Task: inverse folding
């Protein structure tokens, strides 16, 4: 599969502090890649390295399968941290300045078209300083879309937006991905929103990439139900199937079993397993969403880092 | 580079402070000539516009250039719009040169503005005056040297703006350098002479001193000094702005 962004062993240190540590990351063409991490996890630093705003301490970056980064970066649109616009200019003037920068031929057509797409077509002579945060954010996205980029890097594009603004930005990103075949890398804290949007995910924590997975894999991992850990999985499956008529029992990667909800009362189930001589190590309800999955993965990583003495 | 310049030129035209400073600069020029005209009942000692030519270049022009260049260059960092440029694969050198060139353009516009609003009113008030045989060459030399020195100052302002990345701070530091470099150079001269017994003319080798020297009749020594100072500082300031930018991250 063609990658638009590929990092290998990418590391960034500020003084003695490592912000990004040996990250391998792949964003495939056509993805809406949800980049997840807590504040200070290294998301923005990694994006900034990818788009050339920060130099890596070590490691490599490939864009559109090429090492000629300066050339490839012409094909990238970015919105990083906050909407970067000239406050003393109107939306059209901001667009024209960027069009000139990127050598766009038909400035008026490109400007009108993109402002229409982001819903700022009727802002007229209003200066950007008088825009709401949502409008500024949409203007920043329009600026990022100039020159028909193949790849859009959006760092926290929904920061500070009201619920309606968040929905607008989400719809816009989906539309751009679907209609213009733009690959999108989007980092966000609002995991609920991200899960409605992303087709692939990467979780970064304390500068390290913990996992990368597809939306389908996430769905599988986040399936809600009753998770049990026993000493004999085969015997437990047989018992649950025969005694409680539970059909859809899924073995989990962590050695447990996932029972669909609602199946039966956990207490009765526990009793039956014990009576059958099956030791129950744990039994709990599993919440099925990205937020819980993220918390689970990061807390496991934290424990692992602590064990490793880091 | 062409695209960068085109975009920067567009941004400059929409920078209100550029136009405000230009108007004030031209207003000051007109006020200076008017003050001489109306406080002395005419030109001094039968002076004509040609005699006044060296004074058609003001040392206040760099101050206005400082304000505009600082706002223009450092504003990109303040608004975060530098990210929109740097993330599109433009080389840092090209970004800096584009801003420097537009900074030079700002200075040139201010020089021309001040000149026009000094020379033509002087012409109206005092007439042409008498031109010496060497007037044309001297006038061209003075103009060229004043422009060179102002461009050196302008490069300093761009460099400070790129180093500090904040309009207000850049403006303050640049003004301090302009205002207090003579004091610093004089103290250093004193130290070198009195303590280390090294004879020197350090304060003469400042941009502002050279600009002032051009008000007096031109000598070979002044021309050489202006060329040395102008080109020397211009190159040093260019390197000071360019080299750190290559390494530094853009926020």
Result:
């Amino acid at each position: 599969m063609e990658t638009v962004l590929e990092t290998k062993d990418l590391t960034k240190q500020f003084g003695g502090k490592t912000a990004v540590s040996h990250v391998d990351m792949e964003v495939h063409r056509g993805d809406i890649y949800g980049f997840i991490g807590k504040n200070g996890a290294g998301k923005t630093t990694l994006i900034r390295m990818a788009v050339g705003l920060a130099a890596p301490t070590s490691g490599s970056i490939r864009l559109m399968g090429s090492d000629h980064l300066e050339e490839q970066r012409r094909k990238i649109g970015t919105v990083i941290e906050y909407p970067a616009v000239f406050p003393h200019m109107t939306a059209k003037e901001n667009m024209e300045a960027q069009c000139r920068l990127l050598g766009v031929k038909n400035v008026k057509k490109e400007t009108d078209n993109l402002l229409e797409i982001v819903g700022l077509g009727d802002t007229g002579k209003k200066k950007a300083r008088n825009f709401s945060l949502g409008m500024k954010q949409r203007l920043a996205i329009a600026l990022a879309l100039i020159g028909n980029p193949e790849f859009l890097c959006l760092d926290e594009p929904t920061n500070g937006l009201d619920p309606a603004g968040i929905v607008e930005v989400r719809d816009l990103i989906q539309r751009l991905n679907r209609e213009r075949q733009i690959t999108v890398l989007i980092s966000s804290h609002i995991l609920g929103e991200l899960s409605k949007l992303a087709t692939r995910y990467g979780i970064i924590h304390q500068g390290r990439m913990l996992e990368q997975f597809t939306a389908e894999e996430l769905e599988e991992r986040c399936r809600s139900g009753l998770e049990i850990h026993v000493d004999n999985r085969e015997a437990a499956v047989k018992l649950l199937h025969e005694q409680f008529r539970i059909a859809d029992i899924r073995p989990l990667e962590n050695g447990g079993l996932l029972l669909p909800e609602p199946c039966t009362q956990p207490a009765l189930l526990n009793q039956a397993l014990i009576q059958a001589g099956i030791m129950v190590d744990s039994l709990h309800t599993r919440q099925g969403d990205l937020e819980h999955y993220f918390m689970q993965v990061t807390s496991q990583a934290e424990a692992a880092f602590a064990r490793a003495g880091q | 580079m062409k695209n960068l310049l085109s975009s920067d030129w567009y941004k400059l035209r929409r920078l209100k402070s550029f136009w405000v400073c230009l108007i004030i600069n031209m207003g000051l020029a007109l006020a200076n000539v008017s003050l001489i005209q109306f406080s002395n009942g005419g030109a001094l000692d039968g002076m004509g516009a040609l005699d006044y030519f060296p004074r058609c270049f003001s040392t206040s022009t760099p101050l206005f250039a400082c304000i505009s260049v600082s706002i223009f260059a450092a504003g990109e960092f303040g608004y975060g719009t530098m990210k929109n440029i740097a993330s599109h694969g433009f080389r840092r050198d090209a970004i800096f040169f584009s801003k420097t060139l537009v900074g030079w353009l700002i200075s040139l516009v201010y020089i021309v503005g001040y000149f026009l609003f000094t020379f033509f009113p002087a012409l109206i008030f005092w007439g042409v005056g008498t031109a010496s045989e060497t007037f044309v060459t001297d006038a061209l030399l003075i103009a060229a040297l004043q422009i060179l020195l102002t461009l050196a100052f302008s490069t300093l302002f761009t460099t400070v703006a790129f180093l500090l990345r904040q309009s207000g701070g850049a403006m303050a530091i640049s003004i301090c350098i302009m205002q207090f470099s003579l004091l610093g150079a004089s103290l250093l001269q004193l130290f070198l002479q009195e303590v280390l017994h090294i004879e020197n003319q350090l304060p003469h080798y400042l941009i502002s001193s050279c600009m002032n020297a051009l008000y007096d009749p031109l000598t070979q020594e002044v021309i050489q000094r202006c060329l040395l100072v102008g080109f020397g500082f211009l190159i040093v300031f260019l390197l000071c702005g360019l080299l750190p930018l290559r390494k530094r991250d853009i926020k």
Remarks:
- Chain B has a mean pLDDT of 87.
